[in-house]
Amino acid sequence: MRKSLCLLLFACAVGAHAAPATGSADEMDKFPTDNGLLGQWNEMRSSVAEKAHSVADRASDLVVNAMGFLGVPYRRGGSSAETGFDCSGFVRAIYQQTVGLVLPRSANQQAANTQVIDKKELQPGDLVFFNTMRRAFSHVGIYVGDGKFIHAPRSGAEVRVEDMQMAYWQRRFDGARRVLAPAATTGQQ
Asked: For residues 120 and 175, what is the distance between their CA atoms, to the nearest angstrom?
């Protein structure tokens, strides 16, 4: 895209320099159209807009789907609404059901197979990791926006939304990750 933009600017500059002094404004207005530059520009703009909508739709779908499981009981090793979820089973199920990506089974493997992002870059659908068992990346949830995340917390609890600003979660925050299609594997169990 950067190369195309540079070519567009260069072509405009050359066209402006090569234009006859007596040329009309109409001739100058036709230059980008006649040389196909306007079509290329519109095509690039449309492609970028489509990708942005796709990412926003995916994030929205992830969060909406995850919210549909509020109240499902925690179960160690659980990976379905019928049997209950543990934290990584919940994340894995949401990603598989919503976008068709099968993430690794454990929280630390999910952290290792996703892209590291800064906490300030968090967007809905990103993963947030915590040290809740005296080891890094022992707990995972899905960021839903506004400093909150949804997760399957612990035995005796249910899938719920929590505030990352609570002292408990702040002290245990291990990092944020973004799931990219190549980082996940499809179809494996």
From this structure: 11
**The pTM of the whole model exceeds 0.85:** no
> Within the chain, which residues score under 50 in pLDDT?
1-20, 51-53, 183-189
Q: Is the Cβ–Cβ distance between 92 and 103 less than 8 Å?
A: yes
- Tokens 């199920």 belong to residue: 93
CB 142 within 8 A of CB 89: no
Q: What is the pLDDT of residue 83?
A: 94
Active site residue 139: yes
User: How far apart, in whole angstroms, are the C-alpha atoms of residue 20 and residue 107?
Assistant: 66
- Concerning whether 151 is annotated as a catalytic residue, the answer is yes
> Is 53 among the residues known to form the active site?
no
Question: Residue 66's CB: how many other CB atoms inside 10 A?
Answer: 26
| Contact in structure between 162 and 172 (CB atoms under 8 Å) | no
Q: Give the pairing of strands 160-163 and 139-145.
A: unpaired
Question: What does the pLDDT read at residue 69?
Answer: 97
List the one residue out of 73, 70, 138, 132 whose CA is nearest residue 106: 138
Question: From CA 184, how far away is CA 16, in angstroms rounded?
Answer: 49
pLDDT of residue 5: 43
**Beta bridge pairs of residue 158:** 73
Q: Which of 6, 17, 53, 139 is catalytic?
A: 139
